[in-house]
């Protein structure tokens, strides 16, 4: 997943391979990156909100676990965003297919599972 | 090319939206500092959150001239810096939870 890690710290290497694409494609890639960063920031905000606004849940420390899980997910989304941006930029320079990614599906399923867990705790509280 | 200014303009607005999202996160991270009974730990975390937000804003400002250029320049280091500061916010959030 982080094969392009070295590229991040050597920005010049990204501008020597292949040919410079139409700047509009680069800007579109940049906007996609920023949209992912906003997704990460939203997850981080959710984690902070969980920690500060939820009452203690019936299962010990569940509130903290949910908050930390959201924060970790947000951090991962940010890392993946820059990795994907670098790969897409490189693919455009080399004129090959854009990188494919399972990450959006994995993220969606993870968030859905988290939501189901939350619904379960709420029902547990109402019914118990 | 129709409407050559549209792409840089959309990108500038995307940076702005992202900065606003970051401001909300920074305020949430700094919130414990204004609670009654807040100690030095909360103040330090709030300071780190505000510093992180200032750093993100600085990166966005640094990026702006490249978007204003007649032939806009693609982003380079700004992207990496922005992502890494976002990760730092996740770590600051972890400290808030641990308190």
Automatic annotation (TrEMBL), chain B:
The record's Pfam families line, in alphabetical order, gives: DUF202
Keywords (A to Z) from UniProt: Membrane, Transmembrane, Transmembrane helix
Q: Which residue spans traverse the membrane?
A: 43-61, 81-98
Q: Is Membrane among this UniProt entry's keywords?
A: yes
Presence of the UniProt keyword Membrane in the record: yes
Quick one: a GO cellular component term?
endomembrane system
User: What is its subcellular localisation?
Assistant: Endomembrane system
Q: Tell me what this protein is called.
A: Uncharacterized protein DUF202
| Species, as recorded | Actinoplanes teichomyceticus
């Amino acid at each position: 997943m982080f094969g392009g890690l070295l590229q991040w710290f050597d920005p010049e290497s990204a501008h020597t391979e292949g040919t410079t694409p139409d700047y509009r494609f680069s800007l579109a890639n940049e906007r996609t990156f920023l949209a992912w960063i906003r997704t990460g920031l939203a997850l981080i905000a959710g984690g902070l909100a969980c920690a500060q606004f939820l009452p203690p849940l019936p299962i010990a420390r569940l509130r903290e676990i949910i908050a930390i899980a959201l924060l970790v997910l947000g951090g991962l989304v940010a890392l993946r965003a820059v990795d994907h941006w670098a790969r897409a930029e490189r693919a455009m320079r080399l004129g090959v297919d854009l990188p494919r990614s399972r990450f959006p599906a994995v993220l969606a399923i993870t968030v859905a599972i988290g939501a189901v867990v939350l619904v379960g705790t709420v029902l547990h509280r109402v019914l118990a | 090319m129709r409407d050559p200014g549209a792409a840089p303009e959309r990108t500038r607005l995307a940076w702005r939206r992202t900065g606003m999202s970051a401001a909300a996160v920074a305020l949430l991270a700094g919130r414990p500092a204004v609670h009654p009974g807040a100690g030095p730990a909360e103040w330090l975390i709030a300071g780190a959150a505000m510093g992180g937000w200032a750093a993100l804003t600085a990166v966005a400002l640094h990026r702006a001239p490249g978007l204003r250029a007649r032939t806009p320049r693609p982003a380079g280091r700004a992207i990496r810096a922005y992502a890494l500061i976002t990760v730092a916010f996740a770590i600051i959030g972890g400290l808030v939870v641990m308190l």
